[in-house]
Design a protein that fits this description.
Blueprint: E1 2-8, E2 15-21, H1 28-55, H2 63-68, H3 87-100, H4 102-122, H5 125-136, E3 141-145, E4 161-165, E5 168-179, E6 184-192, E7 198-204, E8 210-215, E9 226-237, E10 241-242, H6 249-284, E11 286-287, E12 290-291, H7 296-324, H8 330-343
Parallel strand pairs: 3-6
Antiparallel strand pairs: 1-2, 4-5, 5-9, 6-7, 7-10, 8-9, 11-12
Length: about 350
């Protein structure tokens, strides 16, 4: 099976196809990473997930264990202390984490795909040298603050504003529904730099004018921290602006594209775990003198669910393969996230 990127032939309207082949077998190193994470999930996350979610807080005590496995620096190059995994391997990791507990998986995803993802795309070498090593080592978690109360995730419409004062930028505004918001030691903050312009900044926890607002009480994923962040004339050195002034919109699109692949993989893990529970229940629950798993209607529902998850996995792995091949993957990533998140339900 192959996946193709349509391009226009020069001087024509005829699309030219650039082909990338999907390999349906994994490399030995990918299998090792997947199986190592799977063992960790079964031994450390699954037995504790219910208690963590009942408590309603991310268990920071597990952060050193996540870091020891490289899960706090999945795509970060070795030179900065990361695991330097490709996108497909990261998708395998996220599926295993999702199968164990959605809260832990979402925490890892936001730290890696969003916060670290933005730094990898747009930070200068000096900024990477300062910020990536402690984040990759798991000294603290990162968050990524785009969403706002009035504009949602519409990057062009953010209401947070910046103004330049000498060698500093001053940020004002409110960020909403920020994953890892109240527990992160470092944040990538997006703020408006004028009409249809966006700038990004690296802001450590404890910076004057930067504080945590309300922590959200959600219907699920209770051990995943979600919080409001408040910028009250938060002063940030110009050296901590990430990328070009007013030109962060393109970077944001790149961050979200890769993030969709990870969320799609996470959703497959959630669906896989749910299906395993359903199969186990169908084998144990008896009606009319036999397990309900023997009824054709139940078998049909379980088979359909398995098929949907397999199809979702193919879409996610296709998007990951396109990304690893340095080909356009925006469309593929969006489809993968959409299909996988619906298949998981």
């Amino acid at each position: 099976m192959s996946s193709c990127r349509p391009l226009r032939k020069p001087g024509t309207t005829q699309p030219r196809l650039v082909e990338v082949r999907l390999n349906f077998s994994y490399r030995d190193d990918q299998l090792l990473v997947r199986d190592t994470v799977r063992d960790f999930v079964q031994s450390r996350i699954v037995p504790n997930a219910e208690a963590w979610n009942e408590k309603g807080q991310f268990p920071l005590e597990i952060l050193p264990e996540l870091a020891a496995l490289g899960l706090t620096g999945l795509a970060v190059p070795h030179e900065y202390g990361g695991a330097e995994l490709d996108v497909l391997t990261i998708a395998l990791v996220m599926e295993e984490l999702g199968a164990g507990d959605g809260s832990i998986a979402l925490t890892v995803a936001a730290h890696n795909s969003l916060c670290l993802g933005h730094l990898l795309i747009a930070a200068s070498e000096e900024q990477k040298s300062r910020w990536l090593p402690p984040l990759a080592r798991g000294e603290y978690l990162g968050c990524w603050a785009l969403t706002e109360p009035s504009s949602g995730s519409d990057a062009i419409s953010v209401q947070s504003r910046i103004r330049r004062e000498g060698d500093d930028y001053v940020l004002s505004g409110t960020k909403q529904f920020i994953t890892n918001g109240s527990i992160a030691g470092f944040a990538v903050i997006l703020a408006g730099a004028g009409e249809r312009k966006l700038s990004a900044f690296g802001v450590p926890r404890g910076t004057d004018g930067f504080r945590v607002g309300r922590r959200e009480e959600k219907m699920g994923l209770h051990a995943s921290d979600t919080a409001q962040l408040v910028l009250d004339d938060c002063r940030v050195p110009a050296a901590d602006r990430i990328g070009r002034d007013g030109d962060a919109f393109t970077d944001v699109k790149g961050v979200l594209d890769r993030g969709r692949i990870g969320i799609g993989a996470l959703a497959i893990g959630l669906g896989r775990a749910s299906l395993d529970i359903a199969i186990g229940y169908a084998k144990e629950r008896r009606q009319f003198g036999r397990p309900i798993a023997e009824f054709e209607m139940i078998q049909w529902r379980l088979a359909r669910a398995r098929t949907e998850l397999d199809a979702a996995r193919l879409l996610v792995h296709r998007a990951a393969t396109l990304a690893d091949s340095a080909l356009r993957f925006t469309d593929a990533a969006s489809k993968a996230k959409l299909y996988a998140s619906e298949a998981a339900t």
